[in-house]
Amino acid sequence: MSILLSEVTKVYQLGGEQVNALAGITLNISPGEFTAIMGPSGSGKSTLMNILGCLDRPTKGSYMLDGQEVATLNDDQLAITRNKKIGFVFQSFNLLPRMSTLQNVALPMVYAGVEKKERLARAEQVLAMVGLESRMNHQPNELSGGQRQRVAIARALVNDPTIIMADEPTGNLDTKSGDEVMNIFSELNSQGRTIILVTHEPDIAEYAGRVVYVRDGLIERDEWKVR
Amino acid sequence: MFSESISIALAGLKANKLRAMLTMLGIIIGVGAVIAMVSIGMGVKDKVATSIAGLGSNLLVVTPGASNAGGSRQAAGSSITLNEKDALAISQEISGINLVAPAVTRSYQVVFGNQNWTTSIQGTTPDIQGIRNYSIEEGSFFTNQDVETRARVAVLGKTVAENLFNGGTPIGQTIRINNAPFRVVGVLEAKGESAGGNQDDTVIIPLKTAQERLMGITYIQNINVQATGTDVIYQVQDDITTLLRARHKLAATTPDDFTVRNMVAIMEAADETTSMITSLLAVVAGLSLLVGGIGIMNIMLVSVTERTREIGIRKALGARYQNILLQFLIEAIVISVTGGILGIVLGIGASYGISSVAGWKTVISSLAIVAAFAFSVFIGLFFGIYPARKAALLDPIEALRYE
After folding, report:
1. Is the pLDDT score of B192 beyond 80?
2. What are the domain boundaries of chain B?
3. Distance (Å) from the alpha carbon of B39 to chain A's nearest alpha carbon
4. Degrees, nearest 5: CA angle B319-B323-B326
5. Do A79 and B1 touch (CB under 8 A)?
6. Complex-level ipTM
């Protein structure tokens, strides 16, 4: 599943003022790549992430995801794309309170129209993959930060997407939990999944095979590491 | 898809049980009030209808007009223009009539032993039984033969029998009406209060006996007519008017010297009044249902704002417009439907409570129940759709950023 961005711009209206969050980005990400997007705050890396994650549409330019033009999809089509093709991991975990770990993980399958029995079975499987099968019936507030992020990763994986997008996934974690989480991402990458990661920590970017530096809405540098 | 939305909505409500309950209370009270108020209104209507029907069904009463003595007009009914031949003519010449009973009434003292009681004495024919729905409890009614022979026989109303005989058997006893002896042949079954007062406080004697042996008159004071049905009663009323005007030889410009009262018309007027009272009560109660609906909208708006982040997360995970819309709409409808069902229970309970505590008659109307319930569901939809749309239209990025 390839990602092809060409001349993508994003303009916001902020109090009558035009803000050019992205000023023309062209970026190709091949299937199976582990890419880190780095940049100072205000550089436009979050906007780029939102567009890559189909949460937002570019103002101009083209975004081909898996051979499909995303820039012209309507809201519902974007929602379906997010549901089937992309798994999200957020800095603040974004688990739903008052729902068990298992229900949280199963949630994307609700919107995919998977039957309840199958949903729970698959959620259980994925939780086992991140080593949390014993925490199935706990609520998010009964888990540690690292555990919560692993639940969030399980949730991102449950519809078997080929792309995992993570926005500062270790930002709220201590070093040890952060390393655990990053190891999971590495493993997922080695299974052939595309990983796109936004971070401002160089240590975290170390896990990636490619680092894209963004500044003032433009790509400043694009580095591949030789393994 | 739909069942998923229901279970998500239920979970959302469970998270805020007290709030959901309080919101529901608005609907419960609204629906309950509509049902209780309508049952009270219908009860009043029913009571008025039975009380008028107690006078007799499809009844027309012809009474003489006011007499005119030297320019001084007397009370209505004081004229002596009606006589038995008028009654006979009505029964013979007008179609659509079941029974005709001419009558005279005057108040006399009735004495038995050392007991006395002043009551209205009606002189009439046996046909009055069918017209006024009188039934005999003991003994029998007098016959047409008794009317022709001016027999001194009497049928007592329940109240009179109780007051004169104190539980003894009146049949075969001789009572005195205005000092004239009468043999009691029957006692009427109790009919209770009706629009005209206590119907059991009366003594009925043969018409000619009353006219000639008691009152010394030749005219009659009213003619009771039973039409064959409500469909012909207005026609019969017109026919009687035409017939009597012809018999009394009234010129076209002279006003009627009699009045034909139509009980169906009176019943319709009363029915209209009580229906109006019922609708008034229902509208006032319906307003409280509307207020309950505004309560739902209010709480749903709060809920959408509170759960902005949750909506953002759900959308990021692939929830579509209709998923979010249904989730919040169903929450609103669950509140209104549950409230509606509990309101029906409350309303029925309140109706029974009112009838047993206050002693008012209440009639639980299934139409009111269905209407109140349907209205509450509609209110849930109507007041739920705006907050639900607001939630479904949220921008996922904005919603995710919301703290």
Report:
1. no
2. 2-51+269-401, 80-256
3. 44
4. 160
5. no
6. 0.93
